[in-house]
Automatic annotation (TrEMBL):
GO terms for biological process: DNA replication. It comes from Virgisporangium ochraceum. This is ATPase AAA. Residues 60-157 form the MgsA AAA+ ATPase C-terminal domain. It comes from the Bacteria. Pfam families: MgsA_C.
Length: 191
């Protein structure tokens, strides 16, 4: 199994850029992410400020990194973090990039949120094993339903869909299936 390596530093334009106070931007990106991962709010905010004040391009990269961190490092610890980040960035951009407080709130939120890297781990694992040919997607029989050509060729229609294809795991305990039952009845009788 071959693991994916990050791009060479020579391919990263941020290795050649400095913040107004002389800190290499690639290091600021690393500080931002590592400090958020460790819940070290103050230094994460300082790194974000350096990025915010370097240039509009670096400020845009700051928001891209925060979006990645929301999924890669916070993940299922706060699954709606990407939605919050999108709103904070929209407010920031509406201010013409001057509303620094939106950045601070985003960094503080991510740094103090519960962390869960399992989405990133899962993504890296799947890319690795699929690209190496070790695994491939399985098409279970229940996926061959009225919505696929193969399902139609097998004669599967709406009744099979409602009885099998639409089945969910971890169903809410109070789910009322009155409408599903009526749809199954109608599928039996026909139009």
């Amino acid at each position: 199994m071959t693991l994916m390596n990050p791009p060479l530093h020579t391919d990263d334009p941020y290795t050649r850029m400095l913040s107004p106070r002389g800190v290499p931007v690639d290091q600021l990106v690393s500080v931002l992410q590592k400090e958020i991962r460790r819940g070290r709010v103050d230094n994460a905010v300082l790194a974000a400020y350096e990025m915010h004040t370097t240039s509009p391009e670096v400020a845009a990269h700051l928001w891209r990194r925060l979006r990645v961190i929301a999924v890669e490092d916070v993940g299922m610890g706060a699954p709606l973090a990407p939605v919050l980040l999108r709103e904070l960035r929209a407010d920031y951009e509406a201010s013409g990039g001057t509303d620094w407080m939106q950045v601070v709130h985003a960094v503080r939120y991510l740094a103090t949120a519960p962390k869960d890297r399992t989405s990133a781990e899962h993504a890296d694992y799947v890319r690795t094993v699929v690209d190496s040919g070790e695994l491939r997607v399985e098409v279970p029989d229940y996926a061959l339903c009225v919505h696929t050509r193969a399902g139609r060729e097998l004669g599967r229609g709406l009744r099979q869909w409602w009885e099998n294809g639409a089945r969910v795991a971890d169903e809410h305990p109070g789910a009322d299936h009155t409408y599903r039952d009526e749809l199954i009845r109608r599928a039996e009788v026909g139009p």
